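quick one before i forget lol
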Amino acid sequence: MSDVTHKSGLPFMKMHGLGNDFVVIDARVSARAVTAGLARALADRHRGVGFDQLAVIEPEDEADLRLTFFNADGSLSAACGNATRCIARHEMQARGVAELAIRTERGVLAARDAGGGLTSVNMGAPMTEWRDIPLAEDADTLHLPIPGDPVATSMGNPHCTFFVEDAEAVDLAARGAEMEHHPLFPQRTNVQFVSVTGPDRLRMRVWERGTGITLASGSSSCAVAVAAVRRGLTGRRVWIVLDGGEIEVDWRETGVWMTGPTAHVFSGVLTAEFLEAL
């Protein structure tokens, strides 16, 4: 890539965690503001690059870096566990370190190299009070007054978890879209359908607000693990099988840790023509 290309375009990286894919823009080396419009254009898998979430890396005085997340529809998301893990892996390799502190809207999150090519991030303490999720009204978050008896959890963004006999049999496109906009969730919600498949093993399929069906979701995995523990279905350390692969979640006193693989697929530059057309 020439210097002219970099000056006239916008560098980015494409990453994924278990097929949950991201475009990553490093605002520490780019002066262009990332807007909701740019996020929507980039999310288009036919006319842009395509992603489940867009992550923007920014400088941060009280941590190693700051992350801001956009959904595919241009809305902001406070948390994105798999993107956090992917970027943590990239930064740790670049800096030659095994641990990082990353600021998000969730606060400062700890990340570490877990060995064997795996990366762990502490997604913080879950929130289970109705005001914190938030819900539109006072309700029992362990047994929401919704057909199917779901659980509500916040990992910085809202989650609605249904425990079902067979997650594979659920019409995820229809049910997910319906539940994302349920009136009990004023900020919309991520939706998971989960089956218990063995001791401390779960099968999960996920619909993400502002994006739709995804192969995996880090914050959703954390919320599901918390919901399973609260329901007495599993222990605090679980393995979750998603459409894109398997992730480990461990709800400790220090927070909800998630551990899994990451991939930096390629790096590229958005052309001036693409950017000028926005």
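fyi DSSP finds six helices and 17 strands in the chain.
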